[in-house]
Amino acid sequence: MKGSRMKGGVWLNEPARWSENKGVVEVITDRGSDFWRETHYGFTRDSGHFLGFRTGSAFTAQVRVRAGYEALYDQAGIMVRVDEARWVKAGVELSDGQAMLSSVLTDGQSDWATAACPFDPSDFRMRATVLDGILRLQVSVDGKRWPLLRLAPFPVAPSYLVGPMCCTPERAGLKVEFSEFSLSAPLGKDLHDLS
């Protein structure tokens, strides 16, 4: 899928309230939605909202995210998924009263990497590129400059699901708007090319 329409995706844990209009998907999260496996907390949750688009073994995907985070662990961004035990989610997450750039990489167990969000978290873009077993996550405020958020090994698979993701483990009712979704061949840019 190339372009900004979001038709053709398949929901994992379809939210009770959502709509799509002219390439904008609006979601109101369900209570207790989350993605996590084991680490620290000892539980596994696979109840977060994820609108997945099937892709091949290599791709670049990006999405614009608008949300108003209010409660602990409110989160929205992008997800790349092989199956319930191998995935990554990345975006903005509220932790200890502060908006954080957050990524959770899961290969059997989840890790969690955070950094203080240096921009207005209510409107940003996420990009994920997968190529030859490497995952590259980038974040952008304006859709022009894309600093690196994370570079990591990622499970090799013949295909992936990729698309918008949001969760509210502690409540219901986070309103999220996803737009400008695109899916293409890997961009093939140098690691320090921020365009």
Major beta-sheet overview: 8 strands, antiparallel
Overall SS class: mainly beta
Strand composition percent: over 45%
How helix-rich are the residues, as a percent range? under 10%
Q: From the 3D coordinates, which CATH architecture would you assign? A: Sandwich
Briefly note the CATH topology name. Jelly Rolls
Low-pLDDT windows of residues: none
Q: Ends: how far apart?
A: 21 Å
- What is the top-level CATH class? Mainly Beta
Protein name: DUF1349 domain-containing protein
Organism: Mycoplana rhizolycopersici
Pfam family, one: DUF1349
InterPro entries: ConA-like_dom_sf (IPR013320), DUF1349 (IPR009784), UCP022704 (IPR015987)
Structural notes for this entry:
With 195 residues, the protein is mainly β. The chain has a single domain (26-184), classed as Jelly Rolls. The chain is 0% helix and 56% strand. It has strands at 10-12, 17-21, 24-28, 35-37, 44-46, 49-55, 59-67, 75-83, 86-95, 98-107, 109-110, 113-116, 123-131, 134-140, 148-153, 160-167, 175-184. The strands form three sheets. Strands 1, 6, 8, 9, 10, 11, 12 and 16 form an eight-stranded antiparallel sheet that branches. The protein is globular. 41% of the residues are buried. The model has no long low-confidence stretch (mean pLDDT 95). InterPro entries: ConA-like_dom_sf, DUF1349, UCP022704. This is DUF1349 domain-containing protein.
